[in-house]
Design brief:
Bound molecules: S-adenosylmethionine
Largest sheet: 7 strands, mixed
CATH class of the largest domain: Alpha Beta
CATH architecture of the largest domain: 3-Layer(aba) Sandwich
Shape: globular
Radius of gyration: 18 Å
Helix content: 25-40%
Structural class: alpha/beta
Number of helices: 7
Strand content: 25-35%
Order of helices and strands: HHEHEHEEHEHEEEEHEE
Number of strands: 11
CATH topology of the largest domain: Rossmann fold
Length: 247
């Protein structure tokens, strides 16, 4: 993924920690429940492009060893400070799909439609290959993606006002064939508000093609699920799909 915005600053990381990280925080609860329900006992988890670590912070409370990769130095610096008293390792990597770690993992996650940030299917395939390589046998790759249906006509503006942060999220589809997402945070700083923002695009591919690519890489079992991680019997019309691919 060559379009990473390296201009993030600490303010953006902090704003994401306080607001944007809610999705990955909530997802940690669903995954912990899935682990219990299926009597799994994972020893470690790697969260690829972990943002402000909201997911890992919850996972490590269950005793699982936690590691996160990040392409943004601002996020890594923020996390190393913010979680200094917790046993979570943060690794600065390059592109999302190009992570390499010394150890292998029982679970690898990539949360909040991050795979959609990769613009070409070759990048998605590289990501699947690297995840497969870094997993232990029977390990799981867990990620979610916005479907082509979702990106077809996704146009929205969300505005929220909080005590210390206001934020505006704008989504526009069909901008030169892409979906463009813009987050602007206004973070209170003394008597004024400081602006911090990011802009990125999302791209999607047919779910069948994604499943086929995962199987081609070697994953034995690929489940398409809802947010509760219950397997879907029908994916027609869905905006978001969660994938559990087992090695
Ligand atoms: C805001 S974080 C979310 C990550 C985390 N999985 C979560 O759910 O909280 C977005 C991630 O995408 C990466 N990224 C790459 N390019 C980006 C861009 N242009 N704008 C925003 N995030 C970008 C960031 O480094 C970060 O890892």
């Amino acid at each position: 993924m060559s379009h990473i915005d390296r201009s993030f600053n600490d303010k953006f990381a902090e704003a994401w920690y306080n607001l944007g990280g809610d999705f990955s925080y909530m997802f940690s609860k669903k995954l912990i429940n899935y682990i219990k329900k299926n009597n799994l006992s994972p020893k470690n988890v790697l969260d690829v492009y972990c943002g402000a670590g909201n997911f890992l912070a919850e996972m490590q409370k269950t005793g699982i060893k936690c590691v996160g990769t990040e392409g943004s130095k601002a996020f890594v610096d923020f996390n190393r400070k913010n979680y200094a008293d917790q046993n979570i390792e943060f690794i600065l990597t390059d592109a999302l799909e190009d992570f390499k770690t010394k150890e292998k993992f029982d679970i690898i996650t990539c949360i909040y439609d991050l795979v959609n940030y990769m613009e070409t299917f070759t990048e998605w395939e590289t990501f699947f290959k690297n995840a497969y390589k870094q997993l232990n046998n029977s390990g799981m790759l867990v990620f979610d993606f916005n479907t082509p249906k979702r990106l077809e006509n996704w146009n929205t503006t969300v505005y929220e006002q909080g005590k210390d942060i206001d934020y505006v999220e704008t989504v526009q589809s069909n901008i030169h064939g892409k979906t463009v997402i813009n987050y602007v945070y206004y973070v209170k700083s003394g008597l004024t508000y400081e602006k911090t923002s990011t802009i990125y695009t999302e791209t999607s591919f047919d779910p069948e093609r994604i499943v086929e690519a995962l199987k081609k890489v070697g994953f034995k079992n690929v489940k398409l699920c809802d947010f509760e991680l219950n397997e879907l019997t029908n994916i027609t019309g869905r905006n978001k799909i969660h994938v559990i691919a087992t090695k």
